[in-house]
Amino acid sequence: MEIGFDILSDLRLDPNESFNWENKATSLYCVLAGNVTHNMRTLWQTLGHLSKFYQGIFYIPGPLEYVSGDDVEKRTADIQQIAGRVPNVAVLHQHVVIVDGIAILGCNGWEDENPNFQHLLTSLRLEDIAYLNKSIDRLQRHIDVKKILVVSSAVPKKELYFGLVPPRAEEAIHLDFALGNDTEHKVSHWAFGTTEKIVDTTLGNINYVNNPYFRKLPYWPKRISIKV
């Protein structure tokens, strides 16, 4: 059996900006890898619009969602409350969803140059890496999980910059550190955001996929299929 997912990221929508997904969905499920908008009303409208076209949306917020909020924990709670009002949306922050033998696991990853977060970025990133470590380790022993799809807003691996590593990421611990716990090789795909470069490549038997919008037209979903 193969399960399809449409990959989207970095919509980066301003309030009242038009975004139409009519007749574009190619799968039952959508993976939204961060940086939708800084405006919470626009987030609610966008999630509501996308939910019309998918049976399930698996969403991880990116740093952009936190730009207009001073308190990270409060903004996370606000995002979860907004998403809870929209049918078919699951926020992946510290939450794993299992669909037909596929565990969908996500984290922000905190790759951003916003000065509001510079004093927090290292600790927030390390918290996310620790969460990935623990979750991937636990899922190795979960008998109903055959494959793992990881979703992050941040670029998970230095090689995925293809030689154009930004200064903020040069010395950072990268999210793929958590793959050391993938002892049963269940992680088959990793969807991510942040970079403007479209990516679909396989490294170490894992398919890394990025499909950023950044107002590029035409914009279509990137579909991945996971066989279980």
Query: In total, how many beta strands?
Result: 11
The CATH superfamily is known as Metallo-dependent phosphatases
Largest sheet: 6 strands, mixed
Q: What is the chain-wise order of helices and strands?
A: EEHEHEEEHEHEEEE
Can you give a write-up of this model?
The chain has 228 residues and is α/β, with parallel strands linked by helices. The chain has one domain (2-227): Purple Acid Phosphatase, chain A, domain 2. It is built from four helices and eleven strands; from the N terminus they run ββαβαβββαβαββββ. It has helices at residues 40-51, 72-84, 121-140, 167-170; strands at residues 2-8, 29-33, 56-60, 89-91, 97-99, 102-107, 147-152, 187-192, 199-203, 206-210, 222-227. The strands form two sheets. A six-stranded mixed sheet has the order 5-6-7-8-10-9, with helices on one face. A five-stranded mixed sheet has the order 4-3-2-1-11. Helix 1 (40-51) runs parallel beside helix 2. The longest helix is centred in the middle third of the chain and has 20 residues, at 121-140.
Layout: helices, strands, pairs:
Elements: E1 2-8, E2 29-33, H1 40-51, E3 56-60, H2 72-84, E4 89-91, E5 97-99, E6 102-107, H3 121-140, E7 147-152, H4 167-170, E8 187-192, E9 199-203, E10 206-210, E11 222-227
Parallel strand pairs: 1-2, 2-3, 3-4, 6-7, 7-8, 8-10
Antiparallel strand pairs: 1-11, 5-6, 9-10
Helix pairs in contact: 1-2
